[in-house]
Amino acid sequence: MNEPMHWRIWPWMRLRETNVRQVVLDTETTGLEVRQGHRIIEIGCVEIVDRKLTGRHYHQYVRPERAIDQGALEVHGITEEFLADKPVFARIADEFLAFIDGAELVIHNAPFDMGFLNAELARLDRPVLPMDRAVDTLMIARRKFPGAQANLDALCRRFEIDNSHRDLHGALVDADLLASVYIELLGGKQPGLG
After folding, report:
1. How far apart are CA 38 and CA 69, in angstroms?
2. Which tens digits make up the pLDDT trace of 29-71?
3. Pairing of strands 104-107, 134-136
4. pLDDT value at position 56?
5. In angstroms, rounded to a whole number, what is the distance separating the alpha carbons of residues 145 and 78?
6. Measuring CA to CA, which residue among 189, 172, 186, 178 is closest to residue 140?
7. pLDDT of residue 187
8. What would the pLDDT profile of 85-141 be if each residue is shown by its tens digit?
9. Could you tell me the pLDDT band of residue 17, with boundaries at 50, 70 and 90?
10. Could you tell me if 142 and 186 are in contact, meaning their C-beta atoms sit under 8 angstroms apart?
């Protein structure tokens, strides 16, 4: 990729272009370790164009074809019974890939979600998503606020974003909150000149 060096260091600077399409993405999973065969059970995506939410989103629950760890269940509350009639990843892969096509992905702790997405794609012998396609908001927050908590709840508090409706983790709810956090991390909807 032939990009200016500062874009590789500060990928959020790409927003200075016009008509930049980004997809804020979150997943919920059966457990924490993709190397232990854990799978995606929910995908939530929210579209941003030029720092503005467009109202377009993608949301899907996924039947993981494996058990959900108790620790993960306590985080998201999604049960195996609830997922029993949901499609497997193979059935939703094309629709998901079409939604994110051409977009930069904005993810909080990108290696986690990208690892799970790429494991699902690899199972289907599909090309994986390159890591340089993702902007990691966790890394941005840690750079911007060294030593401060950088989880989504802490960032919502910092930027006074109402997350009172978030009792448990949920991919679409979290993607929506992260979209607002990301815009604030970039300086807000109307950044000053210079």
Report:
1. 9
2. 999 999 999 999 999 999 999 989 999 999 999 999 999 999 8
3. parallel
4. 97
5. 32
6. 186
7. 87
8. 999 999 999 999 999 999 999 999 999 999 999 999 999 999 999 999 999 999 999
9. low
10. no
DSSP string of 14-36, one letter each residue: GGGSSS-EEEEEEEEESSS-GGG
Residue 81: φ, ψ to 5°: -65, -45
- Using an 8 Å Cβ cutoff, are 107 and 78 in contact? no
165 is annotated as an active-site residue: no
Catalytic residue, chosen from 38, 76, 108, 169, is 169
Helix (H) or strand (E) holding 176: helix 171-185
Place of tokens 């399409």: 21
Query: What single string gives the DSSP state of each residue in 73-97?
Result: HHHH---HHHHTTSPPHHHHHHHHH
Q: E strands of the chain, at which residues?
A: 21-29, 40-49, 52-61, 104-107, 134-136
Tell me the three state secondary structure of residue 116: helix
Specify the length of the chain in residues.
194
